[in-house]
Fold this sequence. Notes:
Elements: E1 21-24, H1 34-47, H2 54-59, H3 65-76, H4 82-99, H5 107-116, E2 121-124, H6 129-136, E3 146-148, H7 161-170, E4 177-181, H8 184-192, E5 197-199, E6 212-214, H9 223-237
Parallel strand pairs: 1-2, 1-4, 2-3, 4-5, 5-6
Amino acid sequence: MPSVDRPLIDPPLIDPPMVDAVLMDLDGTLIDTEQYWITAEYALVAEHGGTWTDEHAHAIIGNALLRSADYMRAHGGVDLPSPQIVARLNDSVVSALGQAVPWRPGARELLASARAAGVPCALVTMSYTRMAQAVVDQLPVGTFAAVVTGDRVSHGKPHPEPYLSAAAALGVDPARCVAVEDSPTGIASAEAAGCPVLAVPNQVALQPGPGRVVRPDLVGLDLDRLTQLMTPVLGRASSRTPAA
């Protein structure tokens, strides 16, 4: 006699999977580089005789890099053009990654589980291509079917363009994706695109919301468990219209 908690027919045989793609942020989500960025910010501000605080650093987590650079000019006294600030920060973080890639627990395993199940994954980051590629090169070939970076979009997070671009590149409905994010800015971008969000806090506390599930980490989370966890939010997301 079948168990009462197991359907007679496995749902994937009669319905498509609820999760059509996993869209993962990079800094603070796939890799724990937020401290690399913060260290680079402090050093650059100090070089220009300015003052920087953790409050300032946390205020720009997840932002488009040019927007963060503008903030550093205004609040940290960095007297350089914003593109040059971005280049300096990127150089520092890429150099640190050359020493060690600080993977966040469970992130690579979740991506591997999705790929094994035939569910495509995209990297959606405001870091520039050079840095993103340095990380992608450390993963098995084919881990990401698409990569969206901050230097390849017209509007960075919190605008919905990065997540809309990732879903379009994969040929999937944003409402049937799960975006994995660690910052309010990234969550705002994903939710504006119509994506349900798995929020995994790192440097900044994250609050629950109708379009998201908050979990302390990704440890032990394979695709089946992710689907179970996100099913109520996926249902809500599918009824929303993405922002333009």
